[in-house]
Amino acid sequence: METATEDFSGFRVLLVEDDEIMRLSVEDRLHLENIPIVSAPTLADALRHLRTGEIDLVVSDLRLPDGTGADLFHDVSHKYPGTPVIMMTAYGSVPEAIELVKAGLSDYLIKPFKMQSFVSRVRRNLSKIADERLSTEITGLDGTQFKPGSGVVGKSPVMRRIERLIHRIGKVDSTVLITGESGVGKEVVATLIHRNGPRSDGPLVRVNCAAIPANLVESELFGHEKGAFTGADRQRIGRFEQANGGTLFLDEIAEIPPETQVKLLRVIQERSLERLGSGTPIEVDVRIVAATQANLEKAIEENTFRSDLFWRLNVVRIHIPPLRERPDDILYLARLFTQQQARQVGKEIAGLSPEVEDYLLMQGYPGNVRELRNVIERALVLCDGTRIEMHDLLPFELELSDDKPQSLKDVVRDAEIQAIRSALARYDGAIMEAAQSLGISRKNLWEKMKRYGLSA
């Protein structure tokens, strides 16, 4: 879930609970978690605290001496939009809480609950608020408003360090090598480097070296004159010349053929090139940012990549870890993509359901950030409610055990297993709460768990 090390000392939680023992227990626990809290025994007292404008999250009992938690929720929704509300309710009042969820309630807890489950729910909602506040400063990925800690590439410690490094190298013109698996965001980092560097007024020319046929790489990079080879019926300006005064981003640099690597090294060192079919040197002034998902050190050992070119590119190196190694970024980016894409398609989406967030955290993401973005985009297309739910994800996220088509029975089985695991994870193995969230009886859940070999 959210990271236990995340600092929420700058937030304030309002607890509305008339049971004094319960109220004091919750206060003590949140104080231990370094989460500021104020409490109110009545609806009137709660409204008075809200009027200060200092409340970030409301946790309320559904039954209050002078009203109901539903009254409080509707008041918060109208007067303090964007302030999340968690409702605490007895088992018999769960249907009422579910109706409030449909109206925009952030979450609900069934009494009695484990204190750790309560703390986890509070931390999750505060983390969501922090993510939303950070992401509101991001208007796009072009880097025009970039600053260290902006959260453009993520909020995990390693991505914050990368943001600080991007800021530092923005003052110089050094060559940069970006490494990392496919889909981690190498092109985003390259764009930020250009937009925040001394050449931001110049062009940013992108070249995917893996997409160019080997016999056309030189022509693509350096250009050619008319008649330079069969089919060259006119002059062509190469990517180096197109990027003159700006940045040339060479993605998948390891895919450049060895014979072209020699010429590339010479152009980088001498800042001069000759188009194919011409003996006239042309001066070029470009900054090189290269990227690869390959292990270049291993490629050097195998004689498929020149060591001298490697050292010329490897002046400043930025390695982006895969998404599975930085779980802090999973929900942050998922929430960010949901906001961005909902605005693009004109949908009013409050966010992701807790079950969806639990599910997203359990995935391996071989496609990294690109995969996560696509998952959110597809779910958003299917979503017809106020937030993305599990049924919006599951049609796309079921993994096939082999290449053979699955029967409908197998698809339903896999969907049930995933939904049950998610519910159990969310409620810390509490069978009754998990069953209620799934809309089935406790006995039915036990039977399904036994059938599928699942444990609490």
Task: Throw out a few tags for this protein.
Rossmann fold; 456 residues; Helicase, Ruva Protein, domain 3; 16 strands; single chain; 46% helix; alpha/beta; 3 domains
Description:
The protein has helices at 20-32, 43-50, 69-79, 94-102, 115-135, 157-169, 186-195, 217-222, 239-242, 258-270, 296-301, 307-313, 328-345, 354-361, 368-382, 390-397, 408-426, 431-438, 442-452; strands at 13-16, 37-40, 57-61, 63-64, 67-68, 85-90, 107-111, 176-179, 204-208, 247-251, 272-273, 282-283, 287-292, 316-319, 351-352, 387-388. The protein is of the alpha/beta class. The chain folds into three domains: 13-135, Rossmann fold (3-Layer(aba) Sandwich), CATH 3.40.50; 157-321, Rossmann fold (3-Layer(aba) Sandwich), CATH 3.40.50; 326-452, Helicase, Ruva Protein, domain 3, CATH 1.10.8. The strands form five sheets. A five-stranded parallel sheet has the order 2-1-3-6-7, with helices on both faces. Helix 17 (408-426) packs across helix 19. The chain is elongated.
